[in-house]
Amino acid sequence: MTITFVGHGYVGLVTACVFADLGNMVYVVGHTPEKLKRLSSGDPLIFEPGLAELLKKNLAAKRIVFTNSYSETVPKSDVVFIAVGTPPKENGEADLSTVLSVATEIGKNLGDRYTVVSCKSTVPVGTNRMIAHKIEAVMKKGTEFDIASCPEFLREGSALTDTFEPDRVVIGSEAQKATDTLLRLHKPLPGARVLVSIESAEIIKYAANSILATKISYANLISFICEKAGGNVDEVMEGIGLDKRIGRIFLDPGVGYGGSCFPKDVKALISTGSALGVDMSLLTAVEKINDQAKENIVEKIIMNTSGKKIGIWGLAFKPNTDDIRFAPSTYIIKKLLKEAYEICAYDPEASINSKKIFGAKITFTEDPYAATKDADALVILTEWNEFKQINLARVKKSMKTPLIFDGRNIYNPQEMELLGFSYFSVGR
Ligand code: UGA
């Protein structure tokens, strides 16, 4: 099949590479010449394990082409996916301006062949129908198209596996021809097929992200109780997670969820529900607990550190990505700078992005041990694998005071005590 993606962010680029790899001809439309040039030379612009290799392989096979032209791509496409950003507005609503202007461009360029237009960007219920109206307003008479909602569930850091091996493919459409086209496109992929209405598909995406965020906030809430009452949150989560109705996954407490999805999507669902007159206090509580999780580690540091020199390990909002959008690290570092802490940070991938925010206000190192040199405390904010088996004796020697605040519970408290550290983790 021939497919066009408009947008080359995480969702657009990863899905485009996967469909190209499955043998389709894929066009990716962008608008910044510099970025298109880099993408065409095999630079994915983002760090995602395996993505550069997959991109290069499919560029070499001439199955993926980057362009700024709608007129050379949309008319030959069986499916056009919109995969542009929907950043949150001040009031939490998703900003749809780019999605809708892209829809107009697609409408102007639809050709003689039947085309399915589908929004991969996370958009509030009702948006796909708005896209259809935008297209109808500008398309040539007689153009044959349908809209369908086909949300994406990939995670940063494991985006390729998630896309090649989805648990389910959700298709929201009221046109059998559109459903059949998307079923054909997804045929090589495993996972259940969930065929629903457009509205249900749109809501599924927000409902999925919001329940995952709710699980995380629930784990954080229980961690607050464990800290005060003397329990161990890992044991509690193990104990409840073995119940198949609950499951252990996404019950890791920490310094709160971040990233470009959960914070934005929970806010957007609150905004949608509130506008419809639904009491959204369950999700406002989820947000409040998430803020509290970030605040707690700051309080622990202030209460228990005597000096002002702090090393930080981990800036990315999660491991295996260089993404720092809504990363807990940014919030926590801002708070610590306000308290006049001197910070030296290490992250294997995300330092460049964090430097864009903090500049010279903090020091960045290329080596985890260097971040701990003469430090009064070490703070761990992302659970990168390389921290799990690091030489802790060397870390201890390098620090001024052997004090660790572990926001991701990567070490065993008893072992840390034996090694001579004062060790604060979450809910244990
Ligand atoms: C999330 C969803 O998991 C994907 O299914 C979805 O497609 C994506 O949003 C999206 O809407 O595009 P992502 O934000 O990439 O994916 O990463 P997650 O693995 O979900 O982690 C999000 C945040 O939750 C991270 O800050 C992570 O540290 C935190 N988290 C996750 C916890 O604090 N505890 C957990 O148990 C799990």
UniProtKB/TrEMBL annotation:
Example of a GO MF term: NAD binding
Protein name (record): UDP-glucose 6-dehydrogenase
Enzyme's top EC category: oxidoreductase
Swiss-Prot/TrEMBL GO biological process terms: polysaccharide biosynthetic process; UDP-glucuronate biosynthetic process
Residues annotated to bind NAD(+): K35, T86, T122, E156, K264, R325
Pathway: Nucleotide-sugar biosynthesis; UDP-alpha-D-glucuronate biosynthesis; UDP-alpha-D-glucuronate from UDP-alpha-D-glucose: step 1/1
Active site: C261 (nucleophile)
Reactions catalysed according to its record: UDP-alpha-D-glucose + 2 NAD(+) + H2O = UDP-alpha-D-glucuronate + 2 NADH + 3 H(+)
Keywords from the named record: NAD, Oxidoreductase
Record has NAD as a keyword: yes
Record-linked PANTHER family: UDP-GLUCOSE 6-DEHYDROGENASE TUAD (PTHR43750)
Family of the protein in this entry: Belongs to the UDP-glucose/GDP-mannose dehydrogenase family.
EC number: 1.1.1.22
Record flagged with keyword Oxidoreductase: yes
Binding of substrate, residues: F153, L154, R155, E156, K205, F250, L251, D252, P253, G254, G258, K318
Recorded superkingdom: Bacteria
Species assigned in the record: Candidatus Roizmanbacteria bacterium RIFCSPHIGHO2_01_FULL_39_24
Domain UDP-glucose/GDP-mannose dehydrogenase C-terminal: 311-413
